[in-house]
């Protein structure tokens, strides 16, 4: 497909649902050849199927990003199937239990760190190793407004997302001169399964969260997908080391 990402090979994690699925489909519409992955292999297949049905190109794989060897396998698939790697959207993430800091237990802490932070670091490390000899590329990481400010009930989640911005900015400084552009997207409140999980743990949030954003509604995964596709594309060539906030004005106050 012709578009701003024509023929670029882009891997996406957590692409079986929500923001990852929407971004994969938007990037495919812009011409990217997408390597779709998710811990839920059937969901990843489903996203790839929808891309193919819309005339795009994708291949799918079940990948648990908390397992480094599975990230290796994902990048190997991109190289084996398409022969190159031009972009990566490190997006898979989990919200945590939705309890105040003192009620967080160590198992939740470790799981959040493994999926939301270590996997982003390991993914970037391997992607950069591949992109450097390949002539460069673009990396987009999913942070959150919780990477910019604190959110009650989400202490460890927020800590991981602040850390994702630290990785993003530092990698931008280290690799920008060598052709790798690195940015993050910071979604506000997007109605996906992740938000549904938080609402299930804290039912009172349903009525308040919907109107939390000054635009008066939840964001959609497609709106975040548009921001990601732009950051990934050469149209954002001067945008580097940036945390792009897409939150309906939530953090403007
Ligand atoms: N929804 C929001 O309001 C919001 C706001 C800010 C940031 N985010 C971030 O956006 C990203 C995507 O979240 P979403 O809202 O689309 O949630 P979602 O639950 O709809 O989608 C997340 C996807 O990640 C997959 N996943 C979970 N653990 C995984 C693992 N270990 N390995 C691989 N895949 C895994 C899930 O199967 C799912 O398909 C996350 O990083 C999240 O922190 C979401």
Automatic annotation (TrEMBL):
<dbReference type="InterPro" id="IPR020904">
    <property type="entry name" value="Sc_DH/Rdtase_CS"/>
</dbReference>
<dbReference type="InterPro" id="IPR002347">
    <property type="entry name" value="SDR_fam"/>
</dbReference>
<dbReference type="Pfam" id="PF13561">
    <property type="entry name" value="adh_short_C2"/>
</dbReference>
<protein>
    <submittedName>
        <fullName>Short chain dehydrogenase</fullName>
    </submittedName>
</protein>
<keyword id="KW-0560">Oxidoreductase</keyword>
<comment type="similarity">
    <text>Belongs to the short-chain dehydrogenases/reductases (SDR) family.</text>
</comment>
<dbReference type="InterPro" id="IPR036291">
    <property type="entry name" value="NAD(P)-bd_dom_sf"/>
</dbReference>
